[in-house]
Give the backbone structure.
Amino acid sequence: MEVPENLLYTQEHEWIRVDGNKAAVGITQFAQEQLGDIVFVELPEVGSLVEQESPFGVVESVKTVSDLYAPISGTVTAVNKDLEAHPEQVNDAPYGDGWIIEVEVSDDKELEKLMSPEDYIEQCNKEQG
Amino acid sequence: MADDSNLKTTPLHAMHKEMGGKLVPFAGWHMPIQFKGVIQEHQCVRDGVGIFDVSHMGEIEISGPEAKNLIQYLVTNDIEPMQNNQALYTLMCLETGGVVDDLLVHRFSEDHYFLCVNASNSDKDFEWILKNSGNFNASVKNTSPQTAQLAVQGKHSEELVQKLCDIQLSEIEYYHFRKAKIQNFECIVARTGYTGEDGFEIYVDSNVAETVYKSLIEKGQPYDLQPIGLGARDTLRMEMGYALYGNELSENGNPLEAGLGWVIKLQKEDFLGKAALKKQKDAGLSQKLVGIRLLDRGVPRPHYRVLKDGSPVGELTSGTFSPSLNTGIGLCYVSTEYAKPGTNLDVEIRKSNVPAEVIKLPFLPSRVKKSK
């Protein structure tokens, strides 16, 4: 299970990569594996506001629909338009070309609520049973 | 974690785990929903050959001097013209015309048949048949527990199965079957399936299922044979517009509206549901099952509403992403005025209306090996 050291995680299996006041967001390797072949990603509008722990979009695999939860509050500054034609990038490179949105972080104190890679690995192991 | 301990398992349960299958509860069974991935498995069947464990399906054997009369009374299709070694798709209906199950009847001889029924209905069907068999000199046996079923589907099916089988498979026509031996194990090989591809459904004793399965997997290597899960089984059947019990068919539904009039032979002597179905037919159908294809991105799902100019006209009974068409597809009962291919409708997906159009089924041309 790939859980990069330089990211933070949510209980809902999103990751966040913070760079200054911007942060990239996607879903984890574990999440994409659980979902299976991803065929559609519903993206928010650039400029829209997202709120920590609230849904900001939807990811659909052949079999299931799953909400995407914002790891942090802020303004959406970019969305990964490539996913419209190539949603499978989320499966192929969940931490790379499969990124979903970029957010301008409104309050970096919120980062304290997120999980470290170690805690996230522990959660995944529990879920896997 | 969900408790899976009360679920039934097929003789291949351990194999599925070993082969990386993702197992989920399905109709009371613990079944693989996927192995490598639904889309890849789907393409594997469309482009080459795949193998499915469908041992959860039920088998019911009916024999005796009045076996034929009993089945004629139970099912809507006409089994009179059936030859030995022939299979027939049919429905079994309630007196109301509602569907108890859809199934295949296989004829060994005039007084010996076996039925292949849906996993979810297997026990109900057996009870139903027993309950209605009182006036017939026939014996009814639920052989599901000792029967495993493997489906080999895709254009290389015949070549692959032939490597292990003692009879000439090219002589088995579509919807026919033979008793045969695969590696010296007795089995029934039927040229039937649920994918729209040429292929076989193989019935074997549960005790030898794993051995037969392993041999097929081994002989399938040159054809890139893969195990296929229930996920791809559903996308494959959806592309063919095949009805699924529980989605398109139910005890409350009208099978004529499902487009299954071709298996309802109202001219035949009395059968369960005949009066009600005749009445429904005479009254004319108010709605019809149609295929719907999204014209924009999105994945339609069962129970999503279908709209015409903003007003609801139906609800999807099935919906999925079609790997072959790379688009969302669904099945839906709509009022006959909207059933014409090309009709523009919308599917409501999370509060947005996604444009769609009515498609003449199947979504993809079937490639089964028709004899005529």
